[in-house]
Amino acid sequence: MSVSTSSSRTLKIGLVGFGPFGQFLAKTMIKQGHILQATSRSDHSQLCHHLGISFFREEREFIEADNDVILICTSILSLSQVLNNLPLHFLKRPTLIAEVLSVKEHPRNVLLQVVPEEMDLLCTHPMFGPESGKNGWQDLTFVYDKVRIRDEATCSSFLHIFQSEGCKMLEMSCEEHDKIAARSQFLTHTIGRTLSEMEIESTSMNTKGFETLVQLKENSVRDSFDLFSGLFIYNRFAKQELQNLELALEKVKQKLLQKMEEQSSIESKP
Hints:
Layout: E1 12-16, H1 20-31, E2 35-39, H2 45-51, E3 54-56, H3 59-63, E4 69-72, H4 79-85, E5 96-99, H5 105-114, E6 120-126, E7 141-148, H6 152-163, E8 168-171, H7 174-197, H8 208-222, H9 225-233, H10 238-268
Parallel strand pairs: 1-2, 1-4, 2-3, 4-5, 5-6, 7-8
Antiparallel strand pairs: 6-7
Helix pairs in contact: 4-5, 7-8, 7-10
C-alpha cells in the first residue's frame, strides 16, 4: 500500500532498547538526517557518542527529551516490563509510540494498556534484519498497522523512513500479521532450530537442496533463542503451527513405514 510522503520531515526519534536491531535501524535513520536519542538497560553511551546519538541512562530524562517518535526496540520477552517501567506520564506532548517487534497482537495489547490515551500508536514489523538488510532495504517488506493515529503527518514521516529506502510497504492488521507469521516466520525458525539440534553440517557431496537447509540452520541460530521463544509464546497462532508440523512429520513417517512394508512384502514373494 502506498504511503503518503507529502508531509515527510526530519524527526526526533527516541529508541528504547539499543541492541543489534536498534543499532541497525539507527544507522539508516541517521543517514537520512533524523535526530536520534536512546535509552537502554546496557550502557551504550560510547557507541551512541560515536554515532552522534544522545544516550540517556535515566528513563525520565529520556521521556522528557521531547521526541516526535518513541520507538520500542526491546526483545519480545522484556516488552511488558520495559513499557511498565517507562514513566510515560512525563511526556510533554502527544507523541507517536511505535514498535518493531516480530509479533504484533501482543505489543499492540500492551501498548493499549500502558500508553496514555492521547498518544498515537503504530505497530510495525520490518521483515528483515542486520544480515538480510546489510546491503540496503530495497524490495524488503515492511508491515505496519495504524492502531491509533491522529497525527497523520508524523506517522507518514516515520513510515517514509522505510518507503524511501525502497521497502515494500504492507498495511495489515496485527491479527492477520500473526496468522501469516506463524506459518512463515515461526515455521522457518522452528525447522532451522530443529536442523541445528540435529547438528547438520555441510558435506563434500552437498546437493543444492541440502545447502539450502544448512543455510537455513545457520540463519536461524544467528537470532537469539529469546527471539525464537518469543515468536512461540506471544503469537497465539504459533502453537497450532507447531502441532501441524508434528502431525505432518508423523504422517510422512507413517507413509514411509507403509511403503517399506509393501516393498518388503513384494521382495519376500517367491
